[in-house]
Write a structure and sequence with these properties.
The chain has helices spanning 24-30, 40-48, 61-83, 140-149, 153-169, 174-189, 199-213, 217-240, 247-266, 276-287, and strands at 2-5, 7-8, 13-16, 19-22, 51-54, 93-94, 102-109, 112-119, 126-127. The chain is an alpha+beta fold. Strand 7 (102-109) and strand 8 form a beta hairpin.
Length: 289
């Protein structure tokens, strides 16, 4: 088990795939604590934060810790993918207790020491036991299980895309966020992995998104245009070193990522494919009629 910050429970516990999150009171009812053997901070800590549980097996304690840590890191990204929005008001963290709402600074000048406290961004707790977090129409019910039990290459690629998108949604650096959104799309739809991004690859990716998401000529042109615009910004980042990405571009990248992931995860025939090659061949057939 590990402490999890950024979530709220209205029930004693909730299960998301192989993970179980317990309310603080539920945990205290499950374990026996002797106040003479535990420091007051630890007791206070358990009383305040929910705990998340994942069952792993390994040959020794260190390996168990590594496997659990990897699973928790993926859980964070998936949760932030599901929760994340244009306004970036929620963030889930496991282990990390340093998510303060205030930053403390000390100024030393002319022999005097002054302390200043500055308010920083406030993150809202997410109600993680709401049915939304297991919405089958968006594929969330499947994605939780894929964290520890992806059955094929395409499911793993979908999870990778979800993780990149989840990281982007909580990254305060707009340039890094944009690049992570682009990687999320590439991880699913770039079929020449390891190749440099060339105009022909950008054209192929934009066409793939267009025929995946568009239902007619107009909507396909719009989708292709969105992807080309994102890659134009990506190119500027690489060649001119721009420091800030427009909010509208980040919003577009987020929407396109989630639409691509949701469609491939939940709709036939995409959700029956087992690898990217099958997906790529199908999209090519759509493109060439």
């Amino acid at each position: 088990m590990a402490p999890i910050r950024g979530v709220a429970l209205s029930r004693p516990s909730v299960q998301l795939g192989p993970f179980i999150i317990y309310s603080p009171k539920e945990i205290l009812g499950k374990i026996s604590l002797n106040e003479s053997d535990i420091d007051l901070y630890r007791l206070k800590f358990l009383n305040e934060l929910p705990l998340i549980e994942i069952e792993v097996s390994a040959k020794d304690e260190d390996r168990c810790y590594e496997k659990a840590s990897l699973a928790f890191a993926k859980f964070e990204s998936v949760c932030n993918y599901i929760t994340g929005s244009f306004y970036n008001e929620s963030k889930v963290r496991i282990f990390n207790q340093n998510m303060p709402n205030e930053a403390e600074c000390i100024f030393i000048a002319d022999g005097e020491v002054t302390k200043s406290i500055k308010q920083v961004h406030h993150y809202n707790d997410v109600s993680i036991d709401e049915p939304f977090y297991q919405d089958s129409n968006r594929g969330y019910d499947k994605i939780w299980w894929w964290i520890t039990n992806a059955q094929n290459d395409l499911q793993q690629k979908i999870l990778n895309s979800v993780e990149w998108c989840g990281r982007a949604l909580v990254d305060p650096d707009t340039v890094k966020a944009l690049l992570q959104f682009v990687i999320a799309i590439e991880s699913l739809l770039q079929f020449n992995e390891g190749s440099f991004i060339t105009p022909s690859i950008v054209s192929h990716l934009s066409d793939s998104v267009a025929f995946l998401l568009g239902n007619d000529r107009k909507s396909r042109i719009e989708c292709a245009g969105y992807i080309k615009d994102l890659y134009a910004i990506r190119s500027k980042i690489a060649h001119t070193g721009i420091a800030v990405v427009p909010s509208l571009s980040l919003h577009t990248a987020h929407v396109m990522c989630k639409r691509v992931v949701t469609k491939i995860t939940t709709e036939a025939p995409y959700n029956s494919f087992s690898n990217k090659k099958e997906l790529g061949n199908y999209l090519s057939n759509l493109k060439f009629g």
